[in-house]
Design brief:
The longest helix is centred in the middle third of the chain and has 9 residues. By secondary structure, the chain is an alpha+beta fold.
């Protein structure tokens, strides 16, 4: 079923996941999963998502059949991931400094490698956030642990989109998928032993 074209990865493909799809093979509650928007052979040949994006999140999701590749790309410190998020509340330089230093939470220490303010809209702030680990709901919980100084309420991530994993940048239309090229695969997995 895999396209045998010369320059196509046999190990990885990418999906631009829309909001409203679970990253799981099946759901007891009958909710939509990413396998509902992928060809049947993805499920049948047991291609697995590398990492997760929650139901409300969208963006880049990689799939593989190779456990070694999956483990490498999800191991903390091996691979940076970049997200663009909209946060309800006024994100200050202090919030950014705290996010980079780390915030203690019920889920352990949550922190970002880099946080850059890239836009504002009313009482919302758009940020580009880079992390190199991915605890469950990491970014939502990190910013939820910070308070809006004006209103005294927790910051809330309203929209989250993963735009890159390692050297691979999202360049696919929402809801579509494609194989990585061999060059993209080699660059992404260059430190895989």
């Amino acid at each position: 079923m895999i396209n045998e074209t010369e320059n196509i990865s046999k190990k990885l493909f990418a999906l631009n996941k829309p909001k409203g799809y679970l990253v799981t093979r099946s759901d007891d509650l009958g909710r939509k999963t990413v396998y509902d928007i992928l060809p049947d052979w993805v499920y049948e040949e047991e291609w697995m998502p590398i990492g997760r994006l929650d139901l409300e999140s969208r963006g880049l999701l990689l799939f593989t059949q190779d456990g070694k590749v999956g483990n490498f790309l999800t191991k903390p410190g091996n691979c940076t991931k970049v997200y663009e998020i909209w946060v309800r509340g006024h994100v200050t330089d202090e919030h950014i400094a705290l996010a980079k230093k780390g915030v203690d939470s019920a889920y352990g220490l949550l922190k970002a490698l880099e946080v850059e303010k890239i836009g504002m809209g009313g009482a919302k702030t758009k940020l580009r956030v880079k992390i190199n680990e991915g605890k469950n709901r990491h970014i939502r919980r990190l910013f939820g642990a910070l308070k809006d100084e004006k209103f005294g309420t927790p910051l809330k991530v309203l929209k989250l989109e993963r735009v890159s994993i390692g050297s691979f940048d999202l360049d696919i239309e929402l809801g579509k998928w494609r194989y990585l090229t061999l060059q993209e695969e080699q660059k992404l997995l260059k430190n895989l032993k």
